[in-house]
Amino acid sequence: MQSMKHFACLLLVATSCVSAAYAQRVTRDIPYATAHERQVLDVYAPDGAKSLPVVFWIHGGGWQAGNKSMVGVKPKAFTEAGFVFVSINYRLLPTVDMDALTNDVATALGWVHKTIATYGGDPTRLLVMGHSAGGQLAALMCTDEKYAKAQGFALTVIKGCVPVDADTFDIPAIIEVAETRARVHQLPLPTNGFR
């Protein structure tokens, strides 16, 4: 029994040491552009971060909803694993068109490349991730070099791409589902993020 109490005590001390070792600092609502209040991002970095790889997170929401706070435990998980984590907002449909929305994401990625060293990140080791519509935007950033070039960096600094919930890649299927739902429920077709 005594050894069990000793073990429990050691486990508690070890857990607090690990938590202390992985303390993070969060800087919220950093503007990456100045045209709109949604052009902001949050940076989560482990205390003492220096030259760490960077996770660039793009939220989902069908290009019409969502925000940078939709991250769950991702910042904690990634900072504990030795990453800097960045979560962005971007302008949404129908306020802007897809080109403006996509350029917001590219501009935020350019800001990260130019500025993330200040927060302890390595601008040459970017991992671009996103969920749903954010997954589609992540795949676009990682495969079309025009976005990186427009921001003044080479696509090769993106070391990985993780588009989560990839149904957004099958655009013909999405259109077919939307048309079927509209027909069955006698609803008008969506006008944004659809065609």
Task: Provide a descriptive summary of the structure in words.
This protein has helices at 2-21, 74-80, 98-115, 133-143, 145-150, 171-184; strands at residues 24-31, 40-46, 52-58, 84-88, 121-131, 158-164. 39% of the residues lie in helices and 23% in strands. It has a single domain (24-184), classed as 3-Layer(aba) Sandwich (Rossmann fold). The protein is an alpha/beta fold. Strand 3 (52-58), helix 2 and strand 4 form a beta-alpha-beta unit. The relative contact order is 0.14. The protein starts with a helix and ends in an 11-residue tail after the last helix.
Report a brief summary of the structure.
This protein has 195 residues and is an alpha/beta fold. The chain has six helices and six strands, in the order αβββαβαβααβα.
Q: Proportion of β residues?
A: 15-25%
> What CATH architecture label applies?
3-Layer(aba) Sandwich
The radius of gyration over CA amounts to 20 Å
Number of helices: 6
Q: Write down the CATH topology.
A: Rossmann fold
The ordered string of helix (H) and strand (E) elements is: HEEEHEHEHHEH
List low-confidence stretches: 3-20
Shape: elongated
Query: How many domains would you count in the coordinates?
Result: 1
Mean pLDDT: 87
Please tally the β strands and state the result. 6
CATH homology group: Alpha/Beta hydrolase fold, catalytic domain
